[in-house]
């Protein structure tokens, strides 16, 4: 369930209850409120409160229904977008654009022929919003592809940083901050070192908000590779999980795992954790906390640890940046969320938990002017791909995919932090209703949408699970349409066999199947803000872009 950010306007509700409670002594008190004042109050309220106000009395209902500005606010809330008030589009045009965009995502019918691209370069390996990026044929530059949006008058655009002066190992891009992070390995007479260069994505110059030209990785990580890493940007935070071979024993298969958190704007290393982790990925919850699965030695089962990047050691008040993952995660965690408990069985336990998140940040976003609306990334999705079973029998591992809306974790975190310095531990039964078990594996996520495939008569159909706002879900229930389904709550898959009985999962999203688009099995499908991208791993093949 997605809630709007912002104040709940408690002062207004105190006033409202006071007036409502004295309505017998003050007849017509609501009706005597000037319409201009009422509109101003409603305009400043979060949408969730506006929808409640609409049911207060006839005056509220009439005022809300008659105000085009408030109606546009509700439409944007439904569609998970932000109104482009500063654009040249007037209010009526913006309302029309948002309605058309939301309706197209509801029906998901592909119209017309796709736009065909032939980049003649390496396969696209990173997406930020509507911008895909890849290395140039020389391997010393980066090409960017801004994909189109008919509903927002965004045309296809391609630009290149032709020569960085070095060969990137991999890149990470955040278009909302115009930041591209380029990883390199540097070899000189003093040895090897790995660096993250902080560049502007349009020019390739040093990013103006970064105090350092690059981030130097610790000596324990002399090199990075394309395969053994996970890198994410969220506001001022940059997180890296990397696996490093034991350089002192080339015959050993020992691989050490490092988790690093930087503030890329100041160049400060905030956390450096080493040790066994259940996950090879990192997920940022907000601009202060990250989430990572781990199995604590002192607690049964597996947990999601929500860790404060800036929290000091509760015993010594030191920063305690470096150390064993087990110790730091427990000492610096603000919240532990238990994953579904596994039934007692010999050697059966959590093996791997892949934690992924759709891109997003709650910081100041760069919004190019002139657009009728912008995609709101606050209602992000966190996806957990879990493998459970015996360590010595990898072929028999039981897979499970859990999907958690990020606002649900933020709400739990806000409750936990009411007691400063303490770490709240929530058993699975206490937060299971925040999650959704997915039968199909994830192929991609973007904003509040989860992409997978279904097979009908042997044919692959693109399918989108849409975690829209509550009003949009209710509208789908009231007005069922072809290709839209709202599945009922159901038990956790494997409950009674693998997992302990611990309640059902609720908050089902709407499922939309693109019925008129058949995709070959060997193609990769990716979501972007305004449609789909279909391509193969062969860089010589064409890339098809389906804009809604």
Quick tags:
single chain; 18% helix; 5-stranded mixed β-sheet; alpha+beta
Structural description of this entry:
With 548 residues, the protein is α+β, with helices and mostly antiparallel strands. The chain has a domain at 1-66. It is 18% helix and 35% strand. The strands form nine sheets. It has a five-stranded mixed beta sheet with strand order 11-12-13-14-18.
List how many beta strands DSSP finds: 35
Strand order of the largest sheet: 11-12-13-14-18
Low-confidence stretches: 1-16, 18-27, 248-252
Helical residue percent band: 10-25%
Shape from CA axes? globular
How many separate helices?
10
Straight-line N-to-C gap: 25 Å
Strand content: 35-45%
The main β sheet shows up as: 5 strands, mixed
Mean of pLDDT: 78
The radius of gyration computed from the alpha-carbon positions, rounded to a whole number of angstroms, is 25 Å
Class of secondary structure makeup: alpha+beta
Pfam families: F-box-like
Domain F-box: 27-74
InterPro entries: F-box-like_dom_sf, F-box_dom
Organism: Phanerochaete sordida
Could you give a short description of this structure?
With 548 residues, the chain is of the alpha+beta class.
């Amino acid at each position: 369930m997605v809630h709007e950010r912002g104040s709940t306007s408690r002062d207004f509700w105190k006033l409202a209850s006071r007036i409502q409670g004295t309505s017998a002594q003050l007849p017509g008190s609501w009706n005597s409120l000037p319409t201009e004042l009422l509109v101003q109050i409603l305009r400043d309220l979060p949408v969730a409160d506006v929808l409640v106000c609409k049911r207060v009395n006839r005056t509220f209902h009439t005022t809300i229904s008659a105000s085009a500005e408030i109606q546009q606010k509700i439409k944007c809330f439904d569609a998970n977008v932000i109104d482009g008030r500063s654009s040249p589009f007037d209010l009526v045009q913006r309302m029309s654009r948002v309605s058309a965009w939301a309706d197209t995502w509801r029906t998901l019918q592909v119209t017309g022929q796709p736009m065909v691209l032939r980049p003649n370069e390496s396969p696209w390996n990173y997406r930020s919003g509507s911008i895909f990026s890849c290395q140039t044929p020389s391997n010393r530059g980066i090409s960017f592809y801004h994909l189109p949006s008919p509903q927002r008058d965004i045309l296809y655009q391609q630009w290149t940083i032709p020569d960085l002066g070095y060969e990137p190992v991999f890149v990470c891009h955040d278009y909302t901050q115009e930041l591209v992070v380029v990883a390199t390995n540097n070899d000189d007479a003093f040895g090897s070192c790995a660096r993250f260069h902080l560049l502007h994505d349009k020019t390739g110059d040093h990013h103006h908000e970064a105090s350092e030209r690059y981030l130097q990785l610790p000596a324990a990580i002399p090199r990075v590779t394309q395969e053994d890493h996970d890198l994410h940007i969220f506001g001022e935070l940059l997180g890296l999980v990397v696996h490093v071979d034991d350089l002192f024993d080339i015959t050993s298969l020992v691989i050490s795992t490092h988790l690093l958190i930087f503030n890329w704007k100041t160049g400060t290393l905030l956390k450096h954790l080493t040790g066994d982790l259940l996950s090879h990925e990192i997920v940022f919850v907000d601009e202060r906390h990250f989430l990572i699965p781990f199995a604590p030695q002192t607690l049964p089962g597996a947990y999601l640890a929500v860790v404060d990047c800036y929290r000091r050691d509760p015993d010594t008040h030191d920063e305690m940046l470096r150390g064993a993952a087990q110790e730091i995660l427990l000492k610096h965690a603000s919240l532990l969320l238990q994953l579904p408990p596994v039934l007692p069985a010999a050697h059966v336990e959590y093996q791997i938990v892949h934690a992924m998140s759709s891109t997003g940040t709650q910081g100041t976003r760069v919004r190019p002017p002139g657009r009728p609306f912008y995609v709101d990334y606050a209602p992000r999705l966190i996806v957990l791909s879990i493998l459970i079973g015996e360590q010595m029998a990898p072929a028999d591992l039981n897979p499970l995919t859990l999907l958690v809306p990020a606002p649900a974790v933020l709400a739990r975190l806000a409750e936990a932090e009411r007691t400063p310095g303490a770490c709240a531990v929530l058993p699975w039964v206490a937060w299971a209703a925040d999650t959704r078990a997915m039968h199909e594996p994830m192929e991609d996520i973007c904003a509040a949408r989860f992409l997978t495939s279904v097979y009908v008569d042997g044919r692959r159909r693109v399918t989108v699970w849409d975690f829209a706002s509550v009003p949009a879900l209710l509208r789908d229930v009231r007005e069922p349409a072809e290709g839209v389904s709202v599945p009922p709550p159901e038990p956790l898959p494997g409950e009674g066999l693998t997992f302990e009985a611990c309640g059902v999962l609720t908050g089902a999203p709407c499922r939309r199947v693109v019925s008129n688009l058949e995709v070959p099995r060997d193609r990769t499908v990716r979501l972007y803000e305004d449609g789909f991208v279909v391509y193969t791993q062969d860089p010589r093949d064409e890339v098809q872009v389906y804009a809604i």
